[in-house]
Every structure is written in structure tokens, then in C-alpha cells.
């Protein structure tokens, strides 16, 4: 076998292994903080509940479903705020992930300007979710449900991005919710969009 090809093969395999190891570390870190909470279960309850409510033709029945979901909304806001507070204690080096489209080992260390701080991003999402959950007389129940869903999905995208990469996060969002990353950014509140962009810009 050509020694140059062999060296390239070994080098590529080493990079893949290092990249996989770092991804597993980030997944374990986020899972450690999510473990005691019920954020994923509450998100599922709300997204399914909103779909059911929005599918109702009877306004009274729709209002009843939205009212039932208020308890889950309050729990989610509280638990996500707790997640953001707990994750804020993570060391800076462990909280950073690359903004490059594809995951590369040591990218956040070698290219610190092309990375984001997950601690700050979770704080942005906590504020965005809390803001969306507040009652706004000028916003219809339908628009409120869409806004909350967008805030939740963008937060989910950030978690997948932190654990894997932007490309993987965007592909999962498209597959699970038939929503593109660009659509999510357009759908969240202007305040969330500005704060989110500021964190990604470093």
C-alpha cells in the first residue's frame, strides 16, 4: 500500500475518532443537565396539544385545550430557566461549539471566533420561551402557539447543533418538523432573533 495513502487513511481515521469523542462528551454534558428535568416531555405535550387545539373548528373547544396546556407551559418555562442557570456553571471550554457547518475536532479551540457559547445561547432561549409564554392580548391564540413552537424548535436546534453540528441540527429539524432553519429564525420573536445572532457572532 502506498505509504502516503496509508498516512492519510490513518490521519483521517484519527480525526473521525477524535471528532466522535468530542461529540459524545458534549452529548453527555447536555444529557447530564437535562436528566433531572422533563423538558423534552413537556415540549412534546405542548407541541401535540397546540396541533390538536389548532385543528379544532369549535372556538370553545379550542380555548379549553389551550387552558389545559397552561400548566405544562408554566412548568416548561420554570424548568428551562433552571437548565439555563445550571448550565451557566459549565466551564467555558466545555460550553463552546463550532459555528462551522460541519463538525471538526478541536474546531472551537483552534478557531475560537468561529464558535458559540452554549451557556449564553441557553440563556437566550430561556428568555425567548418565557417571553413567548406571556399572555399578549394583541396576539391570537393561534399566533401565540406558533411563536411558542418556533422558540422551542429553535432551542432544540441549538441543542442538536451543540451536540453534533449545524448541518445535522438543520437536517433533523427538517425531518421532524418539516421546518427549515431559516423558517425558524423568521418565526421567533425579533428579540430572540437579535440576541441569538449576537451570541453566534461571538
What is the compact description of this entry?
By secondary structure, the protein is mainly α. It contains eleven helices and two strands.
Q: Please, could you describe this protein's structure?
A:
The chain is mainly α and 202 residues long. The protein has one domain (22-200). Helices cover 76% and strands 3% of the residues. It has eleven helices and two strands, in the order H-H-H-H-H-E-H-E-H-H-H-H-H. It has helices spanning 3-34, 39-54, 59-68, 70-87, 92-95, 107-110, 118-133, 141-163, 166-177, 181-187, 190-200; strands at residues 96-98, 115-117. The protein has a two-stranded antiparallel ribbon. The termini are far apart. The model is unreliable at 4-15 (pLDDT under 50).
Features:
202 residues, two-stranded antiparallel ribbon, mainly alpha, single chain
Write the layout of secondary structure elements.
Elements: H1 3-34, H2 39-54, H3 59-68, H4 70-87, H5 92-95, E1 96-98, H6 107-110, E2 115-117, H7 118-133, H8 141-163, H9 166-177, H10 181-187, H11 190-200
Antiparallel strand pairs: 1-2
Helix pairs in contact: 2-3, 2-4, 2-8, 4-7, 7-8, 7-11, 8-9, 8-10
Sheet with the most strands: spatial strand order: 1-2
Specify the structural class.
mainly alpha
Any idea what the shape is? Answer: globular
By DSSP (H or I, 4+ residues per run), the number of helices equals: 11
Most strands sheet: 2 strands, antiparallel
Helix amount? over 70%
Query: In the residues, how many domains can be counted?
Result: 1
The helix-strand sequence is HHHHHEHEHHHHH
Regions with little confidence, pLDDT below 50 for 5+ residues: 4-15
Rg over CA atoms: 19 Å
Q: Termini distance?
A: 45 Å
- The pLDDT mean sits at 86
